[in-house]
Amino acid sequence: MSHSSSKVIITCAVTGSAHVPSMSEHLPLTPGDIARQAIEAAEAGAAILHLHARNPEDGRPTPSPDVFRQFVPVIAAQTDAVINISTGGSTRMTLDERLAYARVARPEMCSLNMGSMNFSLHPVAAKMASWRFDWEKEYIEGMEDMIFRNTFRDIRNILAEFREYGTRFEFECYDVGHLYNLAYFIDIGLIEPPFFIQCVLGILGGIGPDPENLSMMRATADRLFGRENYRLSILGAGRHQMPLVTMGAIMGGNVRVGLEDSVYLSRGVKAKSNAEQVRKIRRILEELSFDIATPADARAILGLKGRDNVTF
After folding, report:
1. pLDDT digits (tens, 9 = 90+) for 167-213
2. SS3 state at 96
3. Secretion signal: which residues (predicted)?
4. Domain contains 180
5. How far apart are CA 33 and CA 35, in angstroms?
6. CA dihedral of 98, 103, 104, 108, whole degrees rounded to 10
7. Is residue 2 one of the residues assigned to a domain?
């Protein structure tokens, strides 16, 4: 797999399950809002759309295939972007719940967290002056005593099942150990190149948002996999989003932005949409003389099966 191209894949994570509605009035909650913001993000330059679902009544994360069906086909009808369905869901969901819609849709791409971990935003609760919905405060504070579960058996079973569907993965690596977990599954033959590794920095419970840590993750991946066998993408949580993803692109990686990862556009300024973040990182990348990958480019770079082979 050649890395001679300077094209950078922009992924947009549209809503996620970690942020709650009270953190930003611009966080998309309803199927209509998720579809609209996803389509706008694709029009702004996102080649991949990373999607979660939310209960349209109160914004609570939901694994319901019925809710996914209210916006995924709309997005697929109006954009050629690669649709990436999360298998992460939230810490409150069972594995079967997290996989429910992906099993139906059999998309080109799913996300896959490469290990069990503490994943928490609980310190944010002390900074909130008020809550929009009754469920939010307990949800955020309760993360202090929650574990996101993806055991080796869980990961093995997901890889084996979705291999039959032809689905490829955004391998979310929140720490160096997750890269070694990925290497294990490569060694036993469940994953073949090209690998798409999402390096996640700045989540409490994972590796910190230090530039040195990004360099270490890149060097470790090079050593384990050989740079010719994988494509790196970078996710910087919160205020670290733009600096880290820019650094990652300069290091030869791809980028992920979106309101799932940060509700801000710049210091103290909330992003009014996912498209605003996409437009900002696109402008930065183009100023640095990078070309932005189209959905067709992303499919070719990552070896995806194509939109015609999904069941949205």
Report:
1. 999 999 999 999 999 999 999 999 999 999 999 999 999 999 999 99
2. helix
3. none
4. yes
5. 5
6. 100
7. no
